[in-house]
Each structure stands twice: as C-alpha cells, then as structure tokens.
C-alpha cells in the first residue's frame, strides 16, 4: 500500500516541502532513497525501538521509502516521526483520511518520546503557505510554531499520542498563542539598565547617538573603565523590535536551535558577544551543513566584539562585506544560501597592550611604536565602517560613591525612538534604508548638508586635526543623527562639533 506523509527541509532560513512516499508490499527488504544523510538512515533503529516499546511493530514486509525531491539532501533526525507514521499507515495500522493535510516532524527517542527539533518556525510558515491544515511536532516546539496563524499546531509528547490522534482515538489540544499580546508584554523588560552606570556621561551620550542612528561604535579605554558593562546595556535603549523584525529574528534563532521554549517570539533585540578565539566560519556562518553564524544571530540587534585587536585578522576582515551589504551569502557547489546580517557592530579595546596609554593616573609601560602596532591590528577598511570612536577614562571615586542613580534606560530609549521615527519618515521613499547609518553618498547630499557655519567648522576640523577623507561621510551621518535627537531639521555647527569629537582614532598623533 502506498501512502504519503509530508515534512520539510530547512535551507538557509526558509523551508522546502519534502514528500515522504512509503510503499509497503510483499517481501522482507527495506529501502530508503532520496539523498538521506546518515542521521536519516539511522532512523530505522530508532523507529523500531520506539514502536516496539509502545506496542507497535515495523511491518515485516518490503518497505520502500522515497524522500522527494530527491536532489535535496535530507539532514538530521527530525524525519523520524513522519517516516514511522508513513510505515504504519502503509501497513494499515493508521487509518486517517486527512493524513496528507498535516506536516509531521519530530525526533524519536528509543522509548518513543519526541525530542525538540530545529527550524520549526520556517517549517510552520511553509505549512501555511502550502495550505496544510495542521502541523504535528514535539510539544517542546509547539509554542514556537503557534506564532503562525491559520495553522493548527498539535504538540505531542510521544509517538503513541500521534498514532492515537491520527486514528481518532484521542484529541490533542491545538496550541494557541496570542502573538501580539505576548510579544508586547516582553518588549520593555530588561535585566540591565543604564541607571546602574555611574559617571561616563559622554560615553552614554555616544551610545545614545549610536542607537538613534544605527551607527557602529568602538570604545577605547583602560581595563575596568566600564566598556563591557555599557555595551551590555545597549539593547535596553534600542527601539523595540517590530513584529516583522521579531519574526525574522526568531526564524534565524529557530534554524540555529537556540529559541526559548517558554516564549514564542524573540521579543528583545539580540545581543551576541563571541569570544575572540572564534573562527571566521563561526562568525559569518557556513560549515559542511551550513548554519547561521554570529553575525546572522545578531540580525536586528547588536554584535559586541570585546578586545577587538585580539580577534584574528581574517575573522575581522570577513565582516567588511556584511557590514556594507547587511547580508551574507554562503556558496556551495550545488547551492547558495543567504542569511540576513543587519546588525550594529559594537567593539571595545584597550588603547595598548598594557592597557594604560592616555590614562590620567597610571603610566603606560609600552615601548615606542607599540601602541600604533597594536592599533594596526585593526585594518583601515574595517575602521572606516565604524562611525563613532569614543575614548573612555576611568570613573573617579567621587562618582562611584554617589548614591544618586543615573538616567534610566527608559528615558534614553524614548529619545532614541523619537529620532528613529524621524528617520523612518525621511527614508520612506528609499527602500532598504531605515536609519542614518545606511545612507549612501547621494542621500548624504540630500539629507545631511550642513549650514554655512557648519561647513566652515568641518573644513577647519579636517585641516587642523588632520582627519582622513574617509571620516568626512561618517561625521555627516553622525551629525544628522545628533540633529534628529535635537529635533532640528538643519545640521548646525554644534551638531557637527559633537560628531567630530567622536573620531578619536582618526586624529593624527593619537597613538603617539
């Protein structure tokens, strides 16, 4: 008897429908074709044990299974459940007229319980697109799939529940999630707050400007000055995710298998902080079976690189194209997979190997030229993509011992959201541009032209501070954001003065 069950294969952050054709006929052999990997081939043993423990048996007949389309590689153990259901249905142990209206996915343990799987959200979206009635999957993944409306999601604990459900013997409740209510419930909840940061008002201001315009930022300062502490609080002042952004971010995290089973959608902007020993493949994504890297996991959020010069040069250089294109393409012989990578780069570093160059109280022990060589570990093209470069000095004891709390993140966030709304209105006719940091040269000439006093100030700064030509566009972008925070239509001299102050590393003689 020939039956069909349906599953899905995840490629990139999208799913492809997989038809599992099972033919149970006379004979004693077992065939599994359709480009399965080893994990899929090993499903026979898991299925046999799971069925035996739950009072069922693999049919003692010739079983031929084809996983179509045959030119797509089928990877992972998530096909255990649809294969098992197909075998039982082909043998007549399951009688379900609507079997072809469900997508079924799940990994079986030897006792028949269902383990959670990766990529549930893209599969659920594909199921709705293909007009399937429902999605049967492990209960641990049910809330994630229930984000997709117009699709019945059935979360099961074990294979026996699935068999009895398809035979009409029991009812599995449909998992329902009020996506909007749950999403907006968590958008304003943060564990870290800028109210805890003593002093460093100039750095907090720089982070506010970076958040308002989507600018990349690097903080340079001695150990213990608060670089990491403030970077970790940056998500608390970023604008909240829209539902579209949350769905896109959750899809990436679902493919990587790092979603929280207690929540249906990612409600906060991601904050990823990889160690400096990370490889270039782990950062941008890829591998034998391509997976999203850290830059894609930071999509719509923050990628924080602590101790930037300690990262391998090859790792830092592969970020240059994603920083410009806001996507990463992983090419293989048979396919090319594209992952989104629109993130804010936040980096921190010591000014020198000993950490105390330009320290107001401690003397730097580094020899001549060491500071410049340390800075040269970061290439000019990468620094060119960092709009704000801010120097940090340690907080004096008087500030640390103050009992008065600083300005909370909520107050800063309100100003950031207001500035972002101005930018949304400005770029509404420019698809793909959402904030000032994404402006090209033509848009700069349209939206970021300084007044006469500002042009004079910028000319003097370029000459006196010996700023590089690459700093010119960055200063204008940052000045445009500062003007937006100020509610000003025009870029005035004071806005440019503040933007120029954020180009520490471009100053001639900064590194000695």
Level of helix content? 25-40%
Strand content: 15-25%
| CATH topology title of the largest domain | Rossmann fold
N-to-C CA distance = 81 Å
Helical segment tally? Answer: 22
Q: Please, what is the CATH homologous superfamily of the largest domain?
A: P-loop containing nucleotide triphosphate hydrolases
Mean pLDDT, to the nearest integer, reads 89
Point out poorly predicted stretches: none
Taking Cα atoms only, what radius of gyration do you get, to the nearest Å? 28 Å
- Structurally, the number of domains stands at 2
Strand-pairing-aware structural class: alpha/beta
- Number of extended strands: 18
CATH class of the largest domain: Alpha Beta
Strand order of the largest sheet: 11-14-17-10-18
How would you describe the shape?
elongated
Assigned CATH architecture of the largest domain: 3-Layer(aba) Sandwich
Largest sheet: 5 strands, parallel
Structure overview:
This protein has 512 residues and is α/β, with parallel strands linked by helices. The protein has helices spanning 38-41, 43-53, 80-90, 120-129, 142-145, 159-166, 179-186, 201-213, 227-232, 243-256, 280-284, 294-297, 313-317, 320-325, 370-375, 380-383, 397-400, 409-426, 441-447, 452-464, 470-485, 493-501; strands spanning 2-11, 14-25, 30-33, 62-68, 102-104, 107-108, 114-115, 134-138, 152-156, 217-220, 271-272, 285-286, 291-292, 302-305, 327-331, 336-340, 344-349, 388-391. Helix content is 36%, strand content 16%. The mean pLDDT is 89.
């Amino acid at each position: 008897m020939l039956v069909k069950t349906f599953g899905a294969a995840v490629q990139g952050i999208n799913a492809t429908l997989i038809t599992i054709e099972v033919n149970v006929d006379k004979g004693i052999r077992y065939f599994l074709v359709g480009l399965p990997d080893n994990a899929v081939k090993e499903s026979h043993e898991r299925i046999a044990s799971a069925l035996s423990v739950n009072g069922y048996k693999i049919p003692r007949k010739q079983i031929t299974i084809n996983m179509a389309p045959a030119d797509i590689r089928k990877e992972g153990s998530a096909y255990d459940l649809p294969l098992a259901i197909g075998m039982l249905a082909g043998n007549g142990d399951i009688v379900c007229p609507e079997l072809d209206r469900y997508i079924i996915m799940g990994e079986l343990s030897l006792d028949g319980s269902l383990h959670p799987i990766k990529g549930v959200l893209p599969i659920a979206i594909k199921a709705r697109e293909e007009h399937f009635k429902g999605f049967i999957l492990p209960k641990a993944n049910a809330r994630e799939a229930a984000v997709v409306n117009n699709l019945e999601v059935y979360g099961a604990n074990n294979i026996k529940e699935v068999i009895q459900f398809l035979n009409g013997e029991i009812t599995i409740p449909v998992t329902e999630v009020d996506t909007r209510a749950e999403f907006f419930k968590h958008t304003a909840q943060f564990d870290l707050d800028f109210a805890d940061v003593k002093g460093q008002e100039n750095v907090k201001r720089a982070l506010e400007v970076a958040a308002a315009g989507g600018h990349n930022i690097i903080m340079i300062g001695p150990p213990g000055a608060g670089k990491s502490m403030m970077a970790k609080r940056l998500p608390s002042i970023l604008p909240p995710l829209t539902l579209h952004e949350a769905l896109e971010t959750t899809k990436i995290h679902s493919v990587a298998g790092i979603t929280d089973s207690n929540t249906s959608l990612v409600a906060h902007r991601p904050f990823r902080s990889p160690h400096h020993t990370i490889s270039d493949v782990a950062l941008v994504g890829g591998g034998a079976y391509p997976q999203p890297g850290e830059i894609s996991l930071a999509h719509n959020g923050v990628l924080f690189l602590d101790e930037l010069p300690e990262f391998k040069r090859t790792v830092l250089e592969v970020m240059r194209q994603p920083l410009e294109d806001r996507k990463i393409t992983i090419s293989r012989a048979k396919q090319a997979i594209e992952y989104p990578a629109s993130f804010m780069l936040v980096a921190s570093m010591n000014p020198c190997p000993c950490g105390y160059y330009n320290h107001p109280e401690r003397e730097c022990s580094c020899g001549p030229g060491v500071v410049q060589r340390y800075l040269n570990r970061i290439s000019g093209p990468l620094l060119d993509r960092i709009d704000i470069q801010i120097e940090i000095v340690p907080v004096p004891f008087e500030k640390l011992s103050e009992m008065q709390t600083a300005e909370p993140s909520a107050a800063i966030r309100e100003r950031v959201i207001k500035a972002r709304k101005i930018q949304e209105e400005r770029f509404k006719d420019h698809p793909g541009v959402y904030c000032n940091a994404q402006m090209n040269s033509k848009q700069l000439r349209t939206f970021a032209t300084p007044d006469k006093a500002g042009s004079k100030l910028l000319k003097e700064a370029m000459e006196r501070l010996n700023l590089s030509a690459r700093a010119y566009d960055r200063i204008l972008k940052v000045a445009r954001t500062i003007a937006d925070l100020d509610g000003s239509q025009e870029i005035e001299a004071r806005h440019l003065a503040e933007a120029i102050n954020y180009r520490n590393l471009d100053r001639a003689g900064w590194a000695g």
